[in-house]
Amino acid sequence: MNNPVFVQIGRRLLQALPSVLGIIVISFVLTRALPGDPAVYFAGAMADEASIQQVRESLGLNKSWFEQFVIYTGNMLQGDLGRSLNTGSPVLEELMTRLPASLELTFMGLGLAIIVAVPLGIAAATRPGSWVDHLCRMLVTAGVSLPTFFTGLFLIYVFYYLVGWAPSPLGRLEIMYLSPPHVTGFYLIDSIIDSDAETFFATLRQLVLPAVTLGLFVLAPIARMTRAAMLNALASDYVRTARANGLSRSTVLTTYALRNASLPLLTTLGMVFSFLLGSNVLVEKVFSWPGIGSFAIEALVASDYASVQGFVLVMALMFVMMNLFIDLLLTLVDPRVSLET
Amino acid sequence: MKQFFRHFKYIMGENPVTVLSFSMFFIIIFFALFGSWIAPYDPYVTDAANTLSPPSWQHLFGTDNLGRDVFSRVIIATRLDLGIAVSAVAVSFLIGSILGCSAGFWGGWTDRIVGRLSDTIMAFPLFVLAMGIVSAMGNSVENIIYATIIINLPFYARVSRTEVSVQRNAGYVQAARLSGCSDTRILATQLFPNILPTMMVQVSLNMGWAIINAAGLSFIGLGVRAPEAEWGIMVAEGATYIVSGEWWMAFFPGVALMLAVFCFNLMGDGMRDLVDPQRRT
């Protein structure tokens, strides 16, 4: 365990603990901040006095705040986030069955955004002042001004109603297709496992518009960061030296500039995830996507608090995990980070 | 005051983008203040004989599913959307910069608490946190404002903390201290004006984001209730009709929202030039 990289990783894992604790405290406060008596809400509209009392005891509402918090954390660690009023099943189970749909969409959107934004940012940085640079700047300013739900509707109108290329924007598969046998929950992967090309392409067709909508939204910050990081790297001494030594243009760009620029880029990906997870909710609503975002919206409308709080908690934990993953990646990519210890 | 206007004219002459964004900003303010006089129709009066009619000279932006004039509704909505964003960002700016300035100036425990607080807020995907807050506190416009205040706090706290901690030992601060100013006085009269330019850019960027955020919340059915005219909820109402080709119901409020956000994003640099004390000489 003397390897400095492992020490670094361990230290980073420890640093995530306060954020997790903070998340648990805030979600605890949110569940207890309900106006009126939380027990009445959690028991549901049809509850009588006895069952309200029962809920009050099971939630531990008659105990002190600190005891309540300990009970809450204990339940959470056992995966008990309460029951959904809408469906009657445990919230965690509901969320877990819907999570793959959301993740498939999120990763697809992020992937698309990276594929377009990174080359665009690089092109803009290598030729400052050219049309690519202006295009990049325009896209960046316009991109952050676009409300996701509006872009989504606009794309539906053009590609479903006017041109007719896209399938109807309702869910993950059109009605005539059966969902592939459940292995991972990701339809794309499941249909490959099932070697069912038809379902695969049907899923893909359904996925394109929502993924493009999400991608358009996060494209702007990624392109801006790539451009800034590349400009920085290109102006550095090591790139100048590499050029002066007569290395080819592509070697200088990829091995010298891009590798160094990828560090600040990875760091900002954390912020991008925050936007991505938030706008995911809106995109799911627009495309009737059966993910955890739609679940949370239905729960919100029905005042199903346990479900909403469970959703907020799961999203926050996912966000922390993604940040952690990025940081670990940084530790592995950047030799300087491990030297610091 | 006269000096301010001369400075304003100078800034405007320098950059056409700033002129564009400021004039858009004044138009938005104008609509927000006098919208009810400009709107050609009553935004709440329904007309069963004239539902879902496409844009025409009578109804510039068409009519919605209840026959209400979309143009009037888009204009009337400016006040509510801008009101939510401005009040939320203003309060957030105030609290955030007080927290951030004290954290940066005094350091120690103040710094640790403020830092931990903003880290905890930032540990959530912010839109999701806003959803959670609104659902816990109750579904109303005020709670949307509170949620927006909370999720914007870390941005202001962080920017002002960094700026103050960089400048806290600058020459002018030491001069002020030598001439007998108290800490609070130095913060308020010396440091704060100097960090204002950076904060202003943050304000204008956050204003756009706050508008998108509030509209997003009402798009999913939180905050603003049905007959009320608000851009987010209007887009949501139009969403059901877009698959059958009635695009104008969602399109125009969406464009209004986009233009407002675009305007605030462009204004950032102009605002910085306007309030930067170093450029006022």
Major sheet size, sense and barrel closure of chain B = none
Largest sheet of chain A: none
The string of secondary-structure elements of chain B, in order, is HHHHHHHHHH
Specify the overall morphology of chain A: globular
Structural class of chain A: mainly alpha
Low-confidence stretches of chain B: none
Percent strand of chain A equals under 5%
Structural class of chain B: mainly alpha
Helix content of chain B: over 70%
Q: Kindly, what is the distance between the CA atoms of the first and last residues of chain A, rounded to a whole number of angstroms?
A: 14 Å
Number of strands of chain B: 0
String of helices and strands of chain A:
HHHHHHHHHHHHHH
The total strand number of chain A stands at 0
Characterize the overall form of chain B. Answer: globular
Task: Give a structural overview.
- The complex is a heterodimer of chains A (341) and B (281).
- Chain A has 14 helices and no strands.
- Chain A has helices spanning 4-32, 38-43, 49-59, 65-77, 91-126, 131-145, 148-162, 187-193, 197-234, 237-244, 249-286, 292-301, 305-333, 335-339.
- The longest helix of chain A is centred in the middle third of the chain and has 38 residues, at 197-234.
- Chain A is globular and about 80 Å long.
- Chain A starts with a helix and ends with a helix.
- Chain B is built from 10 helices and no strands.
- Chain B has helices at residues 2-14, 16-38, 70-106, 108-122, 126-137, 141-167, 171-178, 183-219, 231-242, 248-275.
- The longest helix of chain B is centred in the N-terminal third of the chain and has 37 residues, at 70-106.
- Chain B is globular and about 75 Å long.
- Classes of the chains: A mainly alpha (341), B mainly alpha (281).
